[in-house]
Q: What sequence folds into this?
């Protein structure tokens, strides 16, 4: 069915029709054209988008596209991961874990130096960070940097994508979607085997997983694995970044920010 992280359309007013309903979606440009051409990652938190540019500078952008620099220029030049959790921005830089207060711009390293050097993906869930290392082992980290291994060594060695929603971790493994309950550590397949073999990006919002396939087609999937195509086939073929906030999807296309109601 489906094909982690630019919309090929001329966006004056674009109406996207859902394939299974008469409801229409409207996309709109946010801010100035080209404002996001140097952005390499973006997350949403407390009504703002937080993004890092190629030179390591952190920015905060409101819903109208107005933005301001956080901290000094280039302060985040070695960031590998960007996660929003607990009113703070969490980053992995050169194998170390940091948390940053986005209001003051102050940051602090947590945990031991080098503890995160093998991390290849992480998300926040219920006030904790969950990360997967290169060997597929899952770890749970508290806000003070203390961590513990979750499950067996290499249990997530086939994970290609990682997201959090509804007290579960959601992973795509060999083209199939799974969810893992972090309280019981029980996992189960969601939907049919191979449904996600062509998926290249996904984000959770409003109780749904929103995903994009290789051909740029957008899908919405509920907690049971039931999915539907959203908008015309290939509408997201030029999107480089995607996140979600307040029931809306935000995407960066050719250096410009757009949003739509989910």
A:
């Amino acid at each position: 069915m489906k094909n982690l992280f630019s919309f090929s359309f001329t966006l004056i007013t674009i109406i996207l029709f859902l394939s299974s309903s008469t409801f229409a979606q409207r996309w709109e440009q946010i801010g100035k054209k080209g404002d996001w051409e140097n952005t390499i990652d973006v997350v949403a938190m407390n009504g703002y988008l937080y993004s890092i540019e190629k030179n390591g500078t952190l920015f905060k952008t409101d819903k109208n596209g107005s933005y301001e620099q956080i901290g000094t220029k280039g302060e985040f030049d070695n960031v590998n991961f960007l996660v929003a959790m607990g009113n703070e921005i969490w980053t992995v830089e050169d194998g170390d874990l940091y948390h940053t207060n986005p209001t003051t711009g102050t940051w602090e390293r947590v945990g031991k130096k080098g503890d995160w050097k093998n991390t290849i993906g992480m998300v926040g869930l219920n006030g904790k960070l969950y990360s997967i290392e290169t060997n597929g082992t899952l770890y749970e980290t508290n806000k003070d940097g203390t961590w513990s291994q979750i499950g067996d060594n290499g249990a997530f060695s086939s994970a290609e994508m990682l997201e959090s929603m509804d007290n579960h971790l959601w992973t795509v493994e060999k083209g199939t979607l799974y969810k893992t309950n972090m309280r019981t550590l029980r996992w189960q397949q969601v939907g049919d085997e191979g449904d996600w073999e062509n998926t290249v990006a996904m984000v959770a919002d409003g109780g749904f997983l929103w995903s994009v396939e290789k051909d740029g087609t957008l899908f919405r999937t509920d907690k049971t694995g039931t999915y539907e195509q959203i908008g015309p086939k290939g509408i997201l073929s030029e999107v480089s970044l995607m996140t979600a906030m307040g029931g809306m999807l935000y995407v960066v296309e050719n250096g410009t920010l757009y949003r739509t109601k989910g």
